[in-house]
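ESCALATION

Customer reports they have been waiting on this structure for their group meeting. Please prioritize. Original submission:
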Amino acid sequence: MSIQFYNTISREKEAFHSINAGKVRMYTCGPTVYDFAHIGNYRTFIFEDLLRRYLEYRGYDVTQVMNVTDVDDNTIKRSRERGISLTALTNEYKSAFFADLKTLNMQAAHHYPEATNYIDQMIVMIEALEQKGFAYKAADGSVYFNIEKYGHYGKLAHLNPEEMIVGNRVVEDNYEKEGARDFALWKGYKSEDGDVQWDSPWGKGRPGWHIECSVMSTELLGNHFDIHCGGVDNIFPHHENELAQSVCSTGEDFVNYWLHSEYLLVDNKKMSKSLNNFYTLRDLLNQGYPADAIRWMLITTHYRQKLNFSVARLDEAQKAVNRLREFTSKLAEYEGLGSNAATEQIATARKQFASAMDDDLNISGGLGAIFELVRWGNRAMDQTELSTSGAQALLELMSSFDHVLAVLKMDSGLMREVDDKFIESKLAERVKARADRNFAASDAIRDELAALGVELIDTAEGTKWKQK
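Update from on-call: job pushed to the front of the queue and completed.
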């Protein structure tokens, strides 16, 4: 079966076929650098990372572009509130963002275009839209896209053309579907913009948010590319407007597959800065929750399902990561006299994993295949049925799965010094708990040590430990 993705524009699963055989060009929405990204943002970024990693697992050569929005309404407002330059503000949060990517073990994109480096190209695209009759200048020096001129406007967000407010304009970067109207490509200078301004054929001003991504994506990936990703909140107005202006300016198709991840919730409400109910990665690390558990929690719910954040989910995530690590450590140390080379089990796990993930990144099915293999492998080792070569083959398979999951070799992200005597005392407590058949207490001690970056490995000779 070929890979299938749910395409937002068709609202259906579609077989994936790249424009160029064996190669994928992918644009992934990145951060607006006016504050620390919250883990709701990172749910989208990690989904994009999972998508790229799985395409690579399936043999594609992927080129990923992730934009950095360093000029828009939010960045200008925040820099003025703090009394610092736009550059000083965005540099601060760019650094934090790239540090977070590393902590969460995300692959670096091939390109991180920053909007302020593409102003000239934005002006060229706006001029093309104006010349083709899709844009017009307003009295204040702003330039707007005329949605009435593009007959397919609303195709991505499935808007009803009769409900659009034709002839009216909106200058804000974000607005609701009910406010669908002509949107700003170029914003004429206003005093609240401070020193953020560029010269243009229409006078001093700055680009609108939506034109930025159209320019950066087409400059780096070409006018027509394979995949465009983001969160569901980007569908309208951002991606709708991006699609319209891109197609109208180039005269070509823009994107073949639109993939969008659902919200991360807190108490069943969307996590957002506007609701002040968000956690940053630093918040969670400072509270003692390891980065590997955070990554696991964010990837293991299907990207098109809402995910309700809770501490209990992080605890369960850490247990799952520990279980996989214990299995691979056991495989690495295994020397058995068994004859089972695990060939059949490996073929089955590989097939089941790919079959699930090919179905629109069905991560639950993919993990089910992995954990079924873990159960079989542990039994085979415990009963010394597995051969040493079989253990090595299983280890290599787990490594290939981890190219997609990217958790087994992750650092916890926690910076804590743990005394050896403290660890040994905890091990002694755990031995007693297990002897008393108090397995809940035993598991709690394991999780406590895992949160401190200590991995326990149960062997026939007793429990060993190592720093992650």
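Sent to customer with the following note: The radius of gyration is 25 Å.
Escalation resolved.
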